Amino acid sequence: MTLSSPLRGRARLRVGRFIRAVARRGEMDLERTIHASSPQGIRWKGRFFYDINVRENTGFMPSEHTASSRDKRPLDVFVEIEVSTKSPLSF
Predict the structure, then answer these.
(1) Residue 32, domain member (yes or no)
(2) How many helices (H) and strands (E) does the chain have?
(3) Residue 9 in contact with residue 23, Cβ under 8 Å?
(4) In a domain, 69, yes or no
(5) pLDDT digit of tens for each residue in the chain (91 aa)?
(6) What pLDDT, on the 0 to 100 scale, is given for residue 37?
(7) What total number of domains does the chain contain?
């Protein structure tokens, strides 16, 4: 899972019982990748749902950080999830 934001800040990630706090400290450190095992899914209508929670301590409006943006929505952190069938080498 990758968390990114145009601002420095701190995020707390919970995936099932796995909890990790990560900090983005400067311009070259605004994206963090966290490896976690998949939590136990909840089966519903032939599919699985997973409990993933992200909390962020900063917020921003894209229009304040990108001159060409007209997006005035208050956002916190972007979350990208990559699913792998292999076990990660590091946690």
Answers:
(1) yes
(2) 1, 8
(3) yes
(4) yes
(5) 888 888 888 889 998 888 999 888 877 778 888 888 877 888 889 888 888 888 888 888 877 877 888 888 887 788 888 877 665 554 4
(6) 80
(7) 1
Judge whether 34 and 13 are in contact, CB under 8 Å.
yes
50 touches 39 (CB < 8 A): yes
Q: Is the residue at 87 inside a domain?
A: no
Tokens of 72: 């005035």
Instruction: Provide the domain limits for residue 13.
Output: 2-80
As a whole number of angstroms, the distance between CA 79 and CA 27 comes to 18
* pLDDT at residue 86, as a whole number: 62
**Is 8 domain-assigned?**
yes
